[in-house]
Structures are given as C-alpha cells and as structure tokens.
C-alpha cells in the first residue's frame, strides 16, 4: 500500500533559548499513513507529538528529513504549501478557540474554499461539508456563531471546514481531549465514518491509549522526540514490547495489572540522554543492568507498516 | 474493593454521618434571570469514605462540591442543608466557616498553577494555614511542612523552592500537601488530575488513595472520567443536569448500571482489550442541556435526560423522575428502575 | 468546564449584536449622559449656519457692546469686538469638533496599520516598525507640532496633521499588543492550514477581533485631540481668521480679558472643551465596559 502521507527521518529542533540547549522536539521519526488508514500517535505532553503533527501540515518547517505527500516531498514556498493544504488538513484540540468568534458557521466552513478560489456553488459545497460532519440539516447551523454551539458541534464545524476542501488526509491533534465524555464517542464515530464513506486517511494525535483502541488501525508510541514502539493496535496495545508502552498501559484504571509508576525527572527535549533515551526511567533496565542501555544509541525505527510491531529497545529485540 | 469497604463501615454508622447533604440547590442569578446549576442533591459521607462525583460540563458537579464550603461567587444562591458534624455550614457564621475551611475540610482545586502564589516559596504557603490555625511556632510549622512534603513524595529540602520550579504533577502533589496541612476530616478534590499526563495522573491518584487509607479522611472527588473515579472511590454519584442520576457502590455502577446515562458514560472510555469497543467508539447523541434549557427543566415535568436517552418512552416525558432504590445501597433516577422492581 | 462559568454563556444570537450593544449601553447612565452631551453639541454645530450669519461673526459688521458682561440679548456677554460669546462658542464647535474627529481618524488608521503589521510580522519588519514607533514616542510632541506647522503653514490642516503625527503611537502600541494576543489563538493556526496568507489572516481574523479595542481607544483619542487642538491654536498655530475654542481662548488672553476680569469671555470656551472631552471620555468608558467581556458586571 502506497502511503498518502509519510515522514522520513524527520527532525524539528527549536533554537536555544537563553541558558538552555536547543530543544530536539522531534528527533528522527519515520511514519507512514496509508490510504484510508487511521494511525494514532500516542505520547505524554512534551514528547513532540504536537510538533510532529504541525510539521505534517507544514506549519512547522523541519530542520531535517522530509514530509512526503503521495511520495512527493513537500515544498515550503507559499504556493507549494497552499497547494498541499487542499490535500492535508488539520483539526485542533480546542474547537472553541479554533473558530474565529466573529465568524458564523457558514463563513468558517467557506473559508478554505474561498481561499482556494473554489467559489463556484459555494453554498452547496459548504452545506455538503456540514452534512458530512453530522450537522444536519446544514441550513439550521449555517447562520450560527461559535458561542451559540456546544463543544461537540464546534468540533464538527472545524471538521466540516477541513472537509470543504475535500482533503485526502486529516491530521487531528487531540480532537476530543476538550470534549465531554458522551460527545467524545460521537466525534470519534464521525472520524471512522468519514474514513469509511470518503476513504479519508487520518493521523490522530492523542495522550489517550483508549482512543487508539477505539478508532485506529495502527499506533505509534512517542517518547522524547522518537517513536519507541509502533505496529498494529492489537499487537502494540495487547502485547506491548517496549517498557514505556507497558508502563503507559499498566497505569490505566482498567488494566488489571499492578501499575508501573515511572520515577525520575520528566523527559526534557533540551537534554536528551545518550544511549536509549528512556534508560533513566526504564524499569526494565533497572532490573537487568545492561550496559547497552546507556552506552549504545538505538537506530531510528523504520516505520515499516507491514511489520506488525517494532520496538526501539535493546532488551526486547 | 467495594464489598470489603462496605463491611467495615457499620461501627461508625451509629453516630451522625460526618457530612450530610440534604436537598442542595444552587441557582445563579445574572443578566436578569436565574439559571439553576444544582437542582436538589442529597447524600451522606462518613470518615474514611470516598465518594466520586462524575458528570459532564454543566452537570453541576463542581458547583455542587464548591457550594458545600460556600466557595461560590456571590451570584450563586445556595439552599438546602449541608450538615458537617451536625452543623449546617450554609447558615454558619463566617468566622465558624473559616475555621472549618482551614482545619476540618479542605479543597484541592484543578488548576495547580493558578492556585499557588508564584512569588512565595511553597514552604511559606504550606506553613501559612498551620501557623494561622494551629497557633504553633514557626519552627514547628516548618517541621510539619517538611513532613507533609515528604508524605506526598517530594524531598523536604525543596521547601524553599518557588512553584515554577516544579512540574505540573509535583505542583498538584504540593496542593494535596497543603490540603492536608491542618489534618482535615474531609477533602474535596475538584478534577485533581485533569490537566496531568496519564503517568503523572496515576502517581497523584496513587498518593491520594494511600493517604485516604492511612488517615481515614473522607474524600469527595469530582471528575469527568468514570473509570478513574471507580478505581479511587467506594461510592459513585453520577450527575446530569444538576441532579444525581445514579448513586451507589462504584463497582456495581460500572458493571451493571441501571441508568442509561451511567451506561453511556461508562462506555465512553473504552477498556483496552475489550472487543466490543474496538473500532466502535460509543457516544451519546445530543448535548448536555444549556443553562437556558436547565431553567426550563426546572419548571417542567419529565426526565432531564429524556431528549438524549436511547431507551426513552412516552412516560419519560410526562412523569416526574426522582431517585428510586435500585438495589442494596444504590439508587437511580430512571423510570425503568420502577418497572424492573415491579415486574 | 465547570458549571461555574455557564451563567455567562448566555445564548443570544450574534446577529443581534448591535441591538444587544445598544441595550447594554443604555444601562450605563454615565455613558448615556456623555452621549447626550455629544449629541447636543453635534446638533448645535451642524445647525449653526441656520441661525448664525456672517454679520454676527464678522468683527466689522457686529454692533454689540464691547467686552460686555452677560446682558439681555447677549446671554454670555460679548468679546472685545462686540460679538456674542455664546454664538462664538457654538460656531467654534464646528471647527474644534471636526479637527478632533479628522485627527482621530488619521491617528486610528495610521496607528492601527502600524500596530497590525508590527504584531503580525514579528520578524525584522515588526522590529523596524516598533523602533520607528518608539522614536516617535520619544519625540516631544509640542515642539514637533510647532515645527510641523512652521513647515506646513498655519491653519486647520497643519494642526490636524500635527495632532495625528504625535498621537498615533499610543494606538499603534495598543493594537500591536492586542494583535499579538489574537495571533496566539488557535483559529489563526486553523486559518493558516486552510491556506490563508498574511493579508487574509490580518484582515479577516485579526482586525475584527482588534476592532472593539480600536473603537474604545478612538473615543478617548477624540478627547485628547480636541485638547491638543485648543493647545496648539492657543499657542498661535491656528488660522487667525477662523473661530475655534482654542482661538477664542487665545483672543481672550491677548485681548486682555484676564486683566479685565472678563470671566464670561474666558470660561465658556474652556467649559465647552471640558464638556466635550468629558462626553467622549464617558462614552468611551461605557463602550469599553460593554465590549470588554471581562468587565461585564463590574
């Protein structure tokens, strides 16, 4: 399967601030999203997952590596980016903030088509997008303003705004994190439906492993700028290899296992440890005392989607 | 967990419960109209018991919890009774209420960053209530603060550090230390782990759980996450539209919910490995009622959850719904409960 | 998230924003009083040509008593040429108000443009613009205005320009700060991903969100512009033939009204300035309260 969206050896380094080293937010990532595939990118805050999402839509320019769309490397001229954005769209975490409070629903959804000169039968396009996003009948919503709608409806407007450009990939950064529990499932259902009806591919960034279980085909677990484990959802979540994935799963309330609480300093992208970057907090290394853990760097995972699971760990290979 | 916890309670049952909330109602006045936030909530809580309050935004769960200690803005009108050790806090004098807030009951707020004063060291901030309330010397207070910091898993040498020198999870633990400063009988934790990562959340919850077990403090914990609550608390109250939809032992509420809303909330966060939720996220169509819809609900009959309920019948629109016993130690506000017991 | 903040989320449709604004404004007595003052002065100024003719303003044609205290027919007395001070104050409102309003319009356009650009382009463009702004802030405004009118010649136009040149910096700073905060909000990121360029982001997203602030600050700018007009005319930079409140004060001062104790000549233009400035300030404060959601209820 040819990937519709791919990153190769992607690096994003933020320049040093006073007194601190440069922050290696994304530090070598390979990832592929196939046609009609939903990939979940999971990690804790500060692991670089949001930066990776922004690099995928061209909001952040990588300092190394490539973003490829249908196999073609992304250019960073204004025209190239604009053309790319018909293809890949972003859905943000906080729908209330992602909508301009002074624009009504119609204008918010019509914004993309207008910017791309798709003004022929604009009304129809907007209404179709609203209906696809589950705001039916669309006429009833077009004149509303963001503050008159619930969080779930706002998120549907944001999704409709992306759909109005008929993209082939959607990158969603924590799409349900700020929504109510009962609304969360409705929005996730919508993402699944869009995949089934439109063949849309999606990369969903989240801190929530349950979300991956709910909607994703494959999952990538990120720690400190790298993907430490990737594979099919069943393989990674039910038979985790990497000690970090195992720890994440063990602290879930329903895990049924004794929680493995990680100790030590929270990960800091301005000082990435040598060797395996997880070694200072790794419970497995504490037990096994292998010299490779802090001495030998791990290769970047290839992100090969045909492998059912890959883990970046000296001890579980 | 629940079954065992229930059995050790009886010896305390004889006395008055530590906290007895009766028909608590909160209305917000503003812009020339009244918006109900809490519409009649009653429950009791004893020492060493933990009650989880779950609900979505606008369900009134935070308002309900904060109104117990009269921590709401002046636009909120609170009626009903909050009997703490037999004394009604809603009618208590301010001086008495302040004393209760300092020593007997304390609150852990959700925003740990904004609740800590950025220009004072955490040592000073933990010592403040001890000095004010326990009337002890600086040295004793300092020693107690060090002890508290130690008990929440932070080195006591960091008493001289400022809030910004700590991570989010550490600050939340400092908040817990501050809440424990005057050895309270009751802690109200309002979304104590919402802004935290899963790993840090697990650490904070673990800590809270240990402290409760060791010291026999009563805890009311508010969260939108049913699975977190069910593992932290013996009893669970699910709130919808300002009322309790279902209340009872956590395990039972999760495994066999009697209210359709509890069922929907329970499914919203899937259990990994459960084939039923794989590629099948469960939600609930519609939205929680808006403030103006809540105002209308207050005047009309029928079940507040009816518009979103997958099992609603015509009767749900016309009958008045209240909490009915739905099993040992549990109640649910659903007409189906009556049907079930009748048939 | 909690029910605590729900009462503020009143669900009033936005297309009634203007009528809602009016209703909220109507609840502010101070703002209404200010508006009343301004409307009264505005109507008088607009209607002035209907009841004031050349024969009442031309020093050669008037026939009243010279520098007389209030008497019958001259309720506020006369100036040294025998003109009615009341009519002069009403006529003076025309030019004082128009200079104030035009100078404000220039200030707002220049200040908002610079502020918006400096806030949006945070690279070298923004730095240069802010350095220019700082440079103008450091310039002493009175000498700058005096030298400007020396170059441009006396008259209303040069005074208007002088006021605009010295007062746009405050607006620019304000708009830049607000632009920075709007630019940090997620909907700007969304617009970028949808394909919006710099111009579209500034005009469609930032400007509408900065507009209320510009509106509020401009009502206050009008007040200070009218004061500046009076100052500059008093210093002799205005057109000597035209009647404004500033020129009346200057004429009174030069004509010895102070030593003669002619309070009826000095006070009315001064009080007129005071009332109009007060009117704009009251309206500005009321608008600020209505538009700024954080001040609602205070």
From TrEMBL, chain C:
<feature type="transmembrane region" description="Helical">
    <location>
        <begin position="271"/>
        <end position="291"/>
    </location>
</feature>
<protein>
    <submittedName>
        <fullName>ABC transporter permease</fullName>
    </submittedName>
</protein>
<dbReference type="InterPro" id="IPR035906">
    <property type="entry name" value="MetI-like_sf"/>
</dbReference>
<keyword id="KW-0812">Transmembrane</keyword>
<feature type="transmembrane region" description="Helical">
    <location>
        <begin position="30"/>
        <end position="52"/>
    </location>
</feature>
<feature type="transmembrane region" description="Helical">
    <location>
        <begin position="210"/>
        <end position="235"/>
    </location>
</feature>
<dbReference type="InterPro" id="IPR000515">
    <property type="entry name" value="MetI-like"/>
</dbReference>
<dbReference type="Pfam" id="PF00528">
    <property type="entry name" value="BPD_transp_1"/>
</dbReference>
<feature type="transmembrane region" description="Helical">
    <location>
        <begin position="97"/>
        <end position="121"/>
    </location>
</feature>
<keyword id="KW-1133">Transmembrane helix</keyword>
<feature type="transmembrane region" description="Helical">
    <location>
        <begin position="142"/>
        <end position="165"/>
    </location>
</feature>
<keyword id="KW-0813">Transport</keyword>
<keyword id="KW-0472">Membrane</keyword>
<comment type="similarity">
    <text>Belongs to the binding-protein-dependent transport system permease family.</text>
</comment>
<feature type="domain" description="ABC transmembrane type-1">
    <location>
        <begin position="93"/>
        <end position="284"/>
    </location>
</feature>
